[in-house]
Amino acid sequence: MSDINEVCSSISWGVLFSHPRDFTPVCTTELGRAAQLSPDFSRRNVKLIALSVDGLEEHHDWSKDIMAYNNAEPGSEFPFPIVADDRRELVEKLGMLDPEEKDRSGMPLSARCVFVIGPDKKLKLSILYPATTGRNFDEILRVIDSLQLTAHNRVATPVDWRTGDSVMVPPSISEQEAVTLFPAGVYTKHLPSGKKYLRYTPQPNTHQQ
Ligand code: BEZ
Predict the structure, then answer these.
(1) Strands, DSSP E only, in the chain?
(2) Which of 44, 48, 108, 202 is deepest in the core (most CB within 10 A)?
(3) CA 195 to chain centre
(4) pTM, whole model, 2 decimals?
(5) Which residues line ligand 1 (CB under 6 A)?
């Protein structure tokens, strides 16, 4: 449907994600959710592109089912491209095939891979789910928020972090450097070891130089 280089253009981030098969239940719920959240991905300057080993016609027909599953207005357009890798070139090249999950003719299906690609076209994060476990696309938005923040600021995000929460000062930054880097302040939690490694600072909202 679209060329990957075109989708992940120089200024955008990209999420390339595979699913096992069109017209299957879990995949329908997943692509339905991704379609609902597509404005949230666009707001973050992220282009979505799905992929499976089905053909173009199947993708077109199935995308209508997905929009109906979403109770979208009849005739509304599916919001992102789905790669038709029916010759299995990309799934093989990108290691997306799940050897445990086969179709009725015994051919392996693609797993539920998620590749987040930065504007420099480099892989920033990959997550792999088996066919039997549907993904959580809110989590994918959450990790993109962390990836985009940490691409421009020397901070790290803690467990379950969400935009607006405090962030952590990485161990590579000295106490002295932290004072200049984080003018909003650094809070260090006292720990039994006496080591000062649990350091928090408010989320920066500007790019550090
Ligand atoms: C599904 O999308 O429902 C599915 C696809 C392949 C294996 C198991 C479940």
Answers:
(1) 13-18, 46-52, 82-84, 97-102, 108-110, 112-117, 123-129, 167-168, 187-188, 199-201
(2) 48
(3) 34
(4) 0.92
(5) 20-21, 24-27, 101, 131-132
Q: Give per-residue pLDDT as tens, 126-177.
A: 999 999 999 999 999 999 999 999 999 999 999 999 999 999 999 999 999 9
d(CA 206, CA 49): 29
CATH code for the part of the protein at 4-145:
3.40.30.10
| Residue whose CA is at the smallest distance from ligand 1 atom 2 | 26
> What are the residue ranges spanned by the domains of the chain?
4-145, 153-201
Task: Assess if CATH 3.30.1020.10 describes domain 153-201.
Answer: yes
Instruction: Quote the ligand 1 centre to 132 CA distance (angstroms).
Output: 6
Can you tell me which residue has the tokens 């929460």?
A: 165
- Tell me the CA–centroid distance for residue 28 and ligand 1, in Å: 9
